[in-house]
């Protein structure tokens, strides 16, 4: 039987899918205007995850160093007792929710624990830095329709590896190239950009703002500026004064880009026709990630490529902008005016110094021990409070739990989801029953809430879905019939150069911060980049055997003293892990590339040796600013 449903993984493509429950196969929905009948390998192989022997399909309770199966009544009764006790001091409850589960119903745990007045986290391990940069520039988070890239004469791609993170954006780019669109990609290398690019420029990791400033410098020197565009900005004199005081050669040196390559990037923006700008999601994972994004946006604006067909600056949109809240329909509890917040990137230290101390932790949709920096410190800190983890696998976070609750996974539950790339809302319909004793997250919380001494009662699922769709005027009945619906947004963002700030004007950055000098003890830069095989840490345990691989370029200075065939360790100021080294062409000399998501319990998790640090905007995580070295040593 074929069921129309949709992918709920943390991916902007948000594919509409056809699931054959008898053959246990998955393919893209050919009727969906964006999915167009195909999906990535992560979605196509999802039955491997559903049917895995490694999956947890019954509640587990800690007994000593291990876990024992139990029934739902016992597990939820134990949790309710602990939660009732903790409610005397609401701040002693901590809720940690991630994007491993998204959708209208996916907000259930957030709404539930908000009603309890629980502590929560702030900071982001994903895209908040880039989002904040775009909000400061444009006043609102928006970009042209993704299909508008078919109208572009040229595309400048600042670091997005579409071969691994967005197969549908890649397909659009390939289609555009067949009709004459040219593509220039800028990155430290080691990615799939040569597959879809006419020209590649290698840049020092994290220094894109200097290349963008060099391009702005050339626009100023050429006097090639549209006066009307500049009248639609609030602070052009400030940016002009900043760039006037910079030297072109110094900017090129700061990003390790030859002057002729910087001039070429300028020419791509200055030539007639429209140039689209794609901003990679890794640029914001540096210390000055927000500044990187803002200077790239500034190039798109100054060159006259904002508010026009075939132009635009693509970072992302909010996957929730077409969906509303149903939190006001909850009965019981009371949402406080303020709640305690702990910094996510430094969660281990935050838990240790919390006052009042955290006594109860609920974690769902987030392998937080694996995904945040200094994961070992987080694991140690979670040993003190009573910890509940809602997860289907015994990953690094689940191993820290006192109780593990098995959730229904994608295809086993119903929800409605938006995208942070396109403007369709998808029905993620239930295609098969949950495996074993697994239950939907919403159902788990509804049951738990009813067991509390002072109950917190959730509405029924359909009521929540219909309420959440009111924000976009999408009909739930239409979703049931078609599986998806388009929400109307302008095809071209910021047409007539009207922006989201109160005065309608664009804002330029007014400062350019220098890159910190390299540490001679740790002269290289660790980039834990996206994988094409799995999403973040959703990696089968069988695929995590042996020593993890890092990739370096042929001009990497470590090769002067390193024997890649010997025992090699990746070393940071926080620790060391054994790795296997592969050498390849096209990588910047400072870059050490490693695919993200490996589990610490198998020696695969790089976040165990990444120091907690924040970016310049919105408390993002500066993963890619981690300095490191490679050395031979005995295991």
Automatic annotation (TrEMBL):
KW Ion transport (keyword) present: no
UniProt keyword list: Iron, Iron-sulfur, Metal-binding
Gene Ontology molecular-function annotations: iron-sulfur cluster binding; metal ion binding; oxidoreductase activity
Name assigned to this protein: Molybdopterin oxidoreductase
All copies of domain 4Fe-4S Mo/W bis-MGD-type, residue ranges: 1-52
SMART domains xref list: Molybdop_Fe4S4
Cited InterPro entries: Asp_de-COase-like_dom_sf, Mopterin_OxRdtase, Mopterin_OxRdtase_4Fe-4S_dom, Prok_Mopterin_Oxidored
């Amino acid at each position: 039987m074929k069921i129309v449903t949709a992918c709920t993984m943390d991916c902007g493509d948000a594919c509409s899918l056809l699931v054959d429950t008898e053959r246990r196969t998955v393919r893209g929905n050919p009727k969906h205007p964006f999915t167009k009948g195909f999906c990535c390998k992560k979605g196509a192989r999802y039955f491997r995850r559903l049917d895995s022997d490694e999956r947890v399909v019954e509640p587990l309770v800690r007994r000593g160093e291990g876990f024992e199966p139990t029934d739902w009544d016992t597990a939820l009764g134990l949790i309710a007792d602990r939660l009732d006790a903790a409610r005397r001091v609401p701040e002693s409850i901590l809720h940690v929710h991630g994007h491993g589960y998204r959708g209208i119903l996916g907000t259930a745990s957030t709404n539930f624990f908000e009603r309890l007045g629980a502590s929560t986290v702030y900071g982001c391990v994903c895209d908040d830095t880039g989002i904040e940069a775009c909000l400061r520039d444009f006043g609102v988070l928006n970009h042209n329709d993704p299909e508008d890239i078919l109208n572009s004469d040229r595309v400048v791609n600042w670091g997005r590896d579409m071969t691994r993170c967005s197969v549908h954006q890649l397909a659009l780019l390939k289609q555009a190239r067949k009709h004459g669109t040219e593509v220039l990609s800028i990155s430290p290398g080691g990615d799939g950009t040569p597959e879809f690019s006419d020209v590649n420029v290698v840049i020092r990791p994290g220094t894109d703002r200097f290349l963008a400033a060099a391009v702005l410098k050339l626009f100023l020197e050429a006097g090639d500026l549209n006066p009307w565009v500049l009248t639609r900005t609030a602070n052009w004199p400030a940016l002009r004064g900043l760039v006037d005081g910079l030297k072109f050669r110094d900017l090129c040196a700061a990003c390790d880009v030859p002057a002729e390559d910087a001039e070429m990037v300028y020419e791509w923006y200055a030539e007639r026709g429209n140039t689209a700008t794609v901003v990679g999601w890794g640029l914001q994972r540096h210390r000055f990630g927000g500044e990187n994004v803002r200077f790239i946006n500034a190039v798109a604006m100054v060159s006259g490529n904002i508010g026009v067909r075939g132009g635009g600056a693509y970072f992302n949109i909010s996957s929730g902008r077409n969906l509303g809240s149903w939190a006001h329909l909850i009965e019981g509890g009371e949402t406080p005016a303020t709640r305690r917040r702990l910094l996510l990137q430094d969660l281990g230290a935050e838990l240790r110094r919390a006052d009042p101390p955290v006594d109860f932790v609920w974690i769902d949709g987030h392998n937080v021990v694996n995904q945040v920096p200094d994961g070992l410190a987080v694991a140690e800190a979670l040993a003190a409070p009573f910890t509940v983890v809602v997860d289907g696998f015994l990953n690094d976070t689940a191993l820290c739990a006192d109780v593990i609750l098995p959730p229904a996974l994608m295809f086993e539950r119903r929800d409605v989801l938006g995208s942070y790339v396109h403007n369709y809302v998808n029905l993620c319909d239930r295609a098969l029953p949950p495996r074993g004793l697994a239950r939907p997250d919403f159902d788990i919380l509804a049951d738990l809430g009813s067991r509390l001494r002072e109950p917190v009662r959730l509405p029924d699922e359909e009521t929540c879905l219909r309420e959440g769709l009111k924000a976009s005027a999408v009909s739930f009945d239409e979703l049931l019939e078609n599986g998806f619906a388009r929400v109307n947004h302008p095809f071209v963002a910021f047409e007539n150069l009207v922006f989201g700030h109160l005065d309608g004007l664009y804002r330029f950055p007014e400062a350019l911060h220098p890159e910190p000098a390299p540490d001679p003890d740790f002269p290289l830069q660790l980039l834990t980049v996206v994988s094409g095989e799995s999403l973040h840490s959703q990696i089968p345990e069988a695929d995590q055997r042996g020593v993890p691989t890092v990739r370096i370029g042929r001009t990497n200075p470590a090769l002067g003293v390193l024997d890649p065939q010997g025992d090699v360790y990746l070393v940071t100021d926080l620790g060391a892990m054994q790795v296997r080294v592969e050498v390849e062409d096209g990588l910047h000399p400072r870059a050490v590339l490693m695919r993200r998501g490996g589990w610490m319990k198998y020696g695969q998790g790089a976040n165990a040796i990444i120091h907690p640090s924040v970016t310049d905007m919105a408390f993002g995580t500066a993963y890619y600013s981690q300095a490191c070295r490679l050395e031979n040593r005995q295991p």
